[in-house]
Amino acid sequence: MTESLQETAQISCDILIIGAGPAGMMAAITACENGADVIVLHDKPSPGGQIYRNVDNSPLPDANILGEDYTQGGELVARFNACSARVFSSASVWHVGDNGEALFSYQGTTQRVSALEIIVANGAMERPFPIEGWHLPNVMSAGAAQVMLKSDGIVSDDAVFIGTGPLLYLIVAQYLRLGVKVKALIDTTEKANYLKATQQLPKAFAQLGMMTKGLGLLNEIRASGTPCYRFVKDIQISAAEHAKPEQASQVTFQCANETVTLQADQFFLHQGVIPNLNITRSLGLAHHWNAQQLCWQPTLDNWGASSVPYISVAGDCSAIVGAIGAQNMGKIVALNLLYRLDRLKLEKRDELATRAMQDMQQLNRFRAFIDSLYRPRDIHRMPEKSSVVVCRCEEQNLAQLEQAFGEQASGPNELKLMTRCGMGPCQGRMCGTTVSELLAKWRNTGVANVGYYHLRSPMRLLNLEELAKLETVAPRSAQ
């Protein structure tokens, strides 16, 4: 804690948690059970994160149709709602300081909260999928399809799902269980990945149940009669001749040495998830390139502690660990903070964390298998066609970025200055990883040598009226 913060004596809570997904909820439950004063900020109307979204208030007649992995989150949400944490829902965090302060938009005002410790648990985002036509209307992420399904019970009939990974297959299976017709599943998993993944099989068998679930999803899709195209490459989404030119209406791809064209009104893309790093990047935390998961992630110790004092990171924004792994991470991080706050002895912290640590080791071994099997194709991460849009916000395509690189824009920030790539409302979320990999390719070096955008607050859009209405969240004792 910095001296200036100590002098203000306006500490709002012991632990501030940003995010109420599996990691944030478990961290709050663990901390509250051990007497800590906790505040949770999350940007959704209800807790759960993406995986457990609306699990306690599903718009579907029977939420069980979404699967056990979804419904089992109901118990965690119930425990979270019953714990003593003060929760601010629909709160948009736009600044986090390394002095324990956070600013967030809430009900038309700006609120300030100060904590002794901060846990960043804002989850993951879908990996960018920069192919021809991915920026067109009628093209969305598969995660967006799941958000509409879980939030409002809205589906898109006769859609085409394109990509790779367990989440893609899960969403297609959920659609089919609801009786929604799926036009086709276009699977981009490379054939060579299956051979490479077998090297990880001995480690993956520790999580045999998860492997069985994945195989079950694929069998479920095939048994439905849904057309499944495997080992697909050379994907191009475009408008058909009879369609409005600005709307995607067809996809063309190569499968088994044949060119296939499908017409559809909606396309959903997915090729895995990566940590959502805008908060950790703006805080200046040390990050490193994870070659296994092909993404940047914060550099943390085994307890989730970052390079900045009083900032810890848990869940999928630390590394992609899945819902169960995120819960384990949330517990581990909270136990460590309880020790740092003198609420647990060192021996007790280690004892309580033993099972979660062991589970994480097993999950990480299984994760290596998943990452190897569903590794996205290089061309689907680093486009080669000059017309492919890389930065959707500023409409910068590959040719424009290559030109700037030829004019000495050798790093992400130089490229940003010369092209505005990464300056849009998403602040580089949808292009940052792609830019890092492209520059590494062009420079013939490792991604770690290229770096990432420099990010600053505010991390979210806000208006002057909100900023003018600044209020401070008072300590519980003052309420």
Mind explaining what this structure looks like?
- The chain is of the alpha/beta class.
- The chain folds into three domains: 3-125 and 275-370, FAD/NAD(P)-binding domain, CATH 3.50.50.60; 128-271, FAD/NAD(P)-binding domain (3-Layer(bba) Sandwich), CATH 3.50.50; 384-449, Arc Repressor Mutant, subunit A.
- It contains 17 helices and 22 strands.
- The chain has helices spanning 3-8, 22-33, 68-71, 73-82, 142-152, 166-177, 191-197, 201-204, 208-223, 278-282, 322-340, 346-373, 378-381, 398-406, 412-419, 432-443, 464-468; strands at residues 13-18, 38-41, 86-88, 92-96, 101-106, 109-120, 124-126, 139-141, 159-164, 182-187, 228-229, 233-238, 250-255, 258-263, 267-271, 273-275, 287-290, 295-298, 311-313, 389-391, 396-397, 470-472.
- Strands 1, 2, 3, 4, 5, 6, 19 and 22 form an eight-stranded mixed β-sheet that branches. Strands 8-15-9-10-11 form a five-stranded parallel β-sheet. A three-stranded antiparallel β-sheet has the order 12-13-14, with no helix packed on it.
- A hairpin with a 4-residue loop joins strand 4 (92-96) and strand 5 (101-106).
- Helix 2 crosses helix 4, helix 2 (22-33) packs parallel to helix 11 (322-340) and helix 7 (191-197) packs antiparallel against helix 12.
- The radius of gyration is 23 Å and the shape is globular.
- Residues 1-9 have low confidence and may be disordered.
